[in-house]
Amino acid sequence: MDYPIISADSHITEAPNTYIDYxxxxxxxxxxxIESEGDGDVFVIDGMDRxxxxxxxAAAGKKPEEITTGGVKFEDxxxxxxxxxxxxxxxxxxxxxxxxxxxxxxMMLCNHPDFGYKQACFDAYNRWIAEYCSEDTSRLLGCxxxxxxxxxxxxxxxxxxxxxGLRGVMMSGNPAIEDFDSEIYNPVxxxxxxxxxxxxxxxxxxxxxxxxxxxxxxxxxxxxxxxxIMGTLVFGGVFERYPELKVVCVEADxxxxxxxxxxxxxxxxxxxxxxAPGTTLSKLPSEYFLNNIxxxxxxxxxxxxxxxxxxxxxxxxxxxxxxxxxxWPWSQDMLREHTASLSDEQARAILCENVAALYNIDxxxxxxxx
Length: 370
Hints:
Layout: E1 6-11, E2 33-37, E3 40-44, E4 52-53, H1 87-93, E5 98-102, H2 105-109, H3 115-133, E6 140-146, H4 151-164, E7 168-171, H5 186-195, E8 199-202, H6 224-235, H7 238-241, E9 247-250, H8 257-271, H9 285-292, E10 293-297, H10 301-305, E11 315-317, H11 331-338, H12 344-359, H13 363-369
Parallel strand pairs: 1-5, 5-6, 6-7, 7-8, 8-9, 9-10, 10-11
Antiparallel strand pairs: 2-3, 3-4
Helix pairs in contact: 4-5, 8-9
């Protein structure tokens, strides 16, 4: 290919010192930490019901029968998850030139009930991930975290992330005060636009719908939280007020988008009186989604097949390394199969151009370095 392939959603595995060495001193004794449990290790977070098992957080490349939640030691995880000097080798193995990088433990922290604690953890993470990405700022593109404790703090968080050289902001899906359609967040959207920081909402970082049936059935409900936030932004008039705002719906797949567009428009045409008082939409809901919302996905073949039913200029492929859903290290084999139905222009956009334009990535330098 004459263009670099970029993952729009990859992850780190927080090192044992991520929070301990970087957190505000008043929270040091409660900082998230690794402890031994049975024959494996876990990440312990004070104030949460159970620790984070390490089996799923770095299971990329394993066969399904090898994937377990527990019984995994930290030293057995992919070293590039926490050591940036090892990262480019794993990128090269998967045929990936650069990655937009999200947290792992930080995803679960989004659901912590104590916003002061959560904010301190995210401040620590932002300092750590900026240092991690400084190893190669052209190939390691970090997203910072904010607890959304209040609009003023969130704006300051965005400014600090920009000063650290981070490329985007991952927001907790559970704001402390009002929901994201409230106009109290107008300064946040204004800051994100001014600072050119795309706003991301990742799966598992917000309260999800309760599932029924066996545990595996919960896997199908994971994307619901993201869909709810996208609908809140659209129907709440956020994109009506801020047409330049760019939001990323991360790791929730994209094959559902065409039906979601229809469903939103149907609701609006038949039940627009359900909009909140004072909210006016000058366009169909689908138009806001198609213009303002980007979606990332890994091996969602439905998304590839139905690209023409959405704005494929807003679709971004990802490998999700090193998580259990990752396509690493066989991404290239998968992509050859799944992009066969796309035009060359569409494939180039989904694998490179869309994410490069969103995060201002210098693709020429990536080609030279490759």
